[in-house]
Every structure is written in structure tokens, then in C-alpha cells.
Amino acid sequence: MCQPKEVGGMGFRSLAKFNVAFLVKQGWRILTNPNSLVAQIIKAKYFPSESFLNSRLGNNCSFTWKSIWAAKGVLSDGMCWKVCNGSRISTLEDSWIPDFNNARLSSYVNNLCDFKVAELIDESSRKWKEEVIVSTFPADVAVKILRIPLSKEAHDDILAWSGAPSGELIVRSAYKLLHGSEIDPSAYALQTDYRNFYKKLWVLNLPSKIKITIWRISWNYLPTRVNMHLRRISNNSICPQCGKGAETNNYVFRKCPVTKTVWKELSFTEILKWLTWVFEQCNPFRREVFCCTIWAIWGDRNKQVHEKISRFGKETTNFIQIYISELQGIKEKIPKNPKEAKSWKHPPDQTVKINFDAAFDGKTCQAAMGIVARNSEGSVLLSFSKIHSQVESTFAAEAIACRITSQLGIDMQWPNLIIEGDALTIIKKCKTKNGDKSKIRAYIQDIHRISQKIKDCRFEHIPRVANRLEHIIASETLKGKEEIYLIGSTPAYVEQLKVLEMKGSID
Length: 507
Hints:
10 strands, six-stranded mixed β-sheet, alpha+beta, 4 domains, globular
């Protein structure tokens, strides 16, 4: 019941594990808020000269401390370092490479026991020492290291939570880590073929009672007469509808003459491999009809057993068709008022607006940035594009583009600046001055540092349709592998779009 739905469970939370996840959260607060009153009291009493992660349980301790301390192992497993200067991070002993288990490094590299990550960074250029890394680490590890972003200015390394994109521990991610570590894959080996079936089942637009019925059938959990007989609850195992065969799942839903009539009426003439086959062969609507039919057949069977009410094949078919029609009527969405078309807007007087976007190629891990700066009249001041290698994701590509845009404002000495992009998460991080712990922390730190040097710098989010000019430049640059830097103009392939945006006549 507590297993994820995609492996055949119901997705219920285990209360015991959820409680441990809350304790992990308390440990995280002690670690990240050492100046809080609670953290100071606990530290003074239980680990005055050590860190929380290296603390010992001790004697005569409170139940509260025992509980938090017991969850410390889960906290350690989920934490990772965010590299900046690398002086606090051990190359082998600490977790610092994203999506990689550092325990494997010891089997490849034996000469880095006392090495710090700082020794892999060129402080003068704030770049990784590529030759050293490639010659020291296995190829797959070296690639991951070279994709870790470094800020232009060195800061202290920080601990972050690897289970959440934000780097901050949330109870849900702690529960997921705890639950995932205790799943026995061999226990679900027989259900491997059912994974796609379960995924398709739970996304159907049907009432939960119907989907749960199908789930119970997949695990043979329905109280058929054969199941009841095996559990010594009933002595009768004959099908109550036809009075002929033994009532198993297979018989009541496929072999019973009453059931066959229903399937024939609904044009399910042959069901070869039962649940998985039907879900594989049919479109979503036919899957819904199939599930509703099974639910109705089981309902008819229960009425026959408990109320002595019989419903023939044609009546069942009519009920199913009416029920599905009602479901379709509920799903029909009320037409929404058309939204006002959004387009690029001119900045205020004496202000420059710079728009940015990024294009990313996951196969080559290359990204291209498209940037256009315009004044209050909509005239282009410059257009710019650049290609970057060893980029981890689209998320990182957008952050790099925003950092380049911010630096461009400094280089051009524009005192009043609006920086616009369609990456909402990036814009939110740029607006928030709290310390970022995500994978793009290095880029966000640089953006904050650069923006503080500009007299008036604002970050604003715009819809993607209003950022098409920059998107096209980035895409064409990535496709053609040719960077641009044009003063007062844009590439010819976006000239018409530029004119339309300047006039404000684009939809």
C-alpha cells in the first residue's frame, strides 16, 4: 500500500518513515541555523566541541535528542557540497559531484586521499583544471566535474540537500530518500511488465473507485468466491451469475457467458493478455471504456450476490454508455475568455531593456545565448550571441545567459537597466537575495554581485511569446555554430520580427 503507484502500490505515506523525515528536517535546521536558540541549547548540551554530523549520542540524553540523532544518517546520505573555492571539500570523502556516488571514486583514484577540491580549480581564471581532471578521473566522472559551475569570485563552500532542486531540505524529499533506500527490487521483479500499465492506469480521467477496482484485480485482491474459499471464508466457489465455472478473476471478467455478452456489445471481441495487453493496444478513451466495463461487471456481480438483482448484458452495456457520457460531460471545460495577446513592451525613458534566452542541445551539452538590448524607443542598441560548452541543462543555460546579460550592462555602463527573460525560476532567483543552494548557485551569486554594481537594475519575467526575438537568435546560433556581436542591428533572419516588436504591432 505504501509503495509508489508506478510499481503497483497505492502511494500511501508510511507514517513511521514520514515521522523520521520530519526528524531529518529538525536535524537540517540545527545544521543550517546554528544561531537559533534551539540549536544553541542542543549544541551546548550534547556536542559542544563537535559538529552535529560528527556528534555522538551520549548518556542520559533526552528522547528528543535520541530521535533527532537517530535520523542523522539519513541527513548525511542526502547532503552534498556546493563547490565554490573547494577548500572545505575532500575529493574522496565528501559528496560533491552531482548525481554521482563518491564511494566509487576510491576504486578508481587512490592518490587523492588528502586532496581538497580546491586543488582542481585554477583560482586565477576561476575554471576547472581540465587537463588534471581528465588525466586523474575516469571519463564519466571527469565530464560531471567539468560541468559543475564555478562563480567568478570565490566564496565559501556550502552544504545543500541533493534531493530537492532548490538545495533546501523539504520533508517530502527526505521521505523519498528514506523510502527509496528500503525498497527491495527483487520483491517487485514479477511486476516489471506491469509498470507501464500502472502508469497509464493512474492517469486515466476516471473516478478513483474505478481505478482502485482495476488495481485490486491486478493484485488478485477482489473477494471472488475462489479467493474466499482459499481463505476458508466460504465453501462455495461457483460463479453466482452463471452457476457453472469457478469464480476466479479470469472467469468472472472473461470466461463467464454473462460477461462475454457485455464485451461483445462493446466491441471488445477478444482480450488476449488481459490488463496489460488491453492498456498497450487501446487508446486512452478505450481504456476508460474497458475500466468502466470491469467496474460495472463487478457491480452487477455484487448485486446478484447481495441483493439478488440480475442485470443482463444489454442493460449493463446501456449503463456503461450512459455513465461514460456523463463523465465526458463533466470533463468538458467551460470556455475561457481569450487572453490579451502579450508582446514585448518598450522600457521607460532613460532605461535600457536587455532580453535574453538560451537554446540547449542535450546530446552535445552545448548551449547558445541570444541577447538583445533596446532603448525606450525600441531601437536596438546591440544584439549578441555566444556558445558555451559543458553545460549541464537548460536550467543552467538560462542562468548563464542571465549572467552574461548582467555583465553586459556593466560593460556598456548603462545605469538604468531592465533584464527580461522567459525563465521564471531564474528571474525569481535573481530577485531573491537569500543564499541560493541549487545547482546553479554559482551563476546566481555572480548575477547578484554584478547587479549590485548597477545603479538601478531590475529583473522581470515575460511570456515566451514576447521573447521570440532572442529565442530565434539563440536557436540559430546553436544550429549554425556562429556567434554574433552587432552594434545597432540584429541578424537578417530576425529583422522583420524586430521591426514588428519596435512598432508594438506583433500579436
